[in-house]
Specification:
The protein is of the alpha/beta class. Helix content is 36%, strand content 20%. Helix 4 (108-117) links the parallel strand 4 (100-103) and strand 5.
Length: 164
Amino acid sequence: MKPIKTVLAFTPAAALAVGLASFGMSGMAHADSHPDMAAHGTMHVTKSPTCGCCGAWVALARQEGYEVEVTDTRDVTSVKLDADIPGEMWACHTAMIGGYVIEGHMPFAALAKLMEEQPNITGIAVPGMPGGSPGMGDDPTARYDVIAFGGDAGEGEVFYQAGL
């Protein structure tokens, strides 16, 4: 009986160690999913200094391999107007990278697609603040659309569908 008690005593600790190791490996795989993103230049993010979800999105962008520079301002409206972001596409923060405008809690797969395809558009937006988007819970099963705007983009053109 003593060997069984010993095994049972160590089973929870072993399961925890395996779980933590697996979590670490999946995190590393996620971080390596877009390793060359810094090659697209520095991402400039303008956000409110008090917005925690924007700060969470910036942290995730850095984990994805982007070099990020942040400007905190209480006047995010003027940034959106200067970038010609249609009013119905506004969200809480605005980023710029590679000559494109990125509005809101953008999934990084959509951003990678934009950088790879380089379409003739002004940018892409995740209007509002959808639950589950990066920085808003980061749920990969959350469903919402990424909309292209400006340039060759048609009005309300879906560029990417998250959660599918």
